[in-house]
Amino acid sequence: MTSTAVTNPVVDEFKDAFRGHPAGVAIITAAGPTGPVGLTASSVTSVSAVPPILAFSLASTEGSAGVIAAAGTIVVHLLGAENAGLAALFAARGSERFGPDLEWETLPGGEPLLKGVPRALVCRVLSLTQAGSSTLIAAAVLDIHTGPAAAPLVYHDRTYHRLSGESALQ
After folding, report:
1. What is the pTM of this model?
2. CA–CA separation, 142 vs 122, rounded Å?
3. Nearest to 114 by CA among 71, 77, 139
4. Cα 27–31–34 angle (5° rounding)?
């Protein structure tokens, strides 16, 4: 018996709407039982400045996402345009993310810290909330590591882009 995928016009339009809505790019890392894990995310958002809290969603809780969902602490790396290759590496299924060519170190809490990114926010996970087919994670920012300044990296229409310094309002 062959199964046919049921399509939902609202779901398809929702996906199309967000393909046209640029988002910042981050890599989220955590220490796992068999070593460091990480993934690329474009769902990171600021929730509160006082105290500093951020949130992001995971589409599944398997593999690296499952380790991140189970971690007590994580590092959210906010990427710059020079990190587009890093974003692609951590987005590729089955890639060797912490290979010998990757510059990173282990923080005192065991979390992997990627080098060469503009900002890395060390966070304590506050909550996990099931939201549809995804898991929404809220995390308190404990410490921030500052790296090299860089032009922003955004994800738009399934591609990484560098923003120019040109303002839309002139």
Report:
1. 0.90
2. 6
3. 77
4. 120
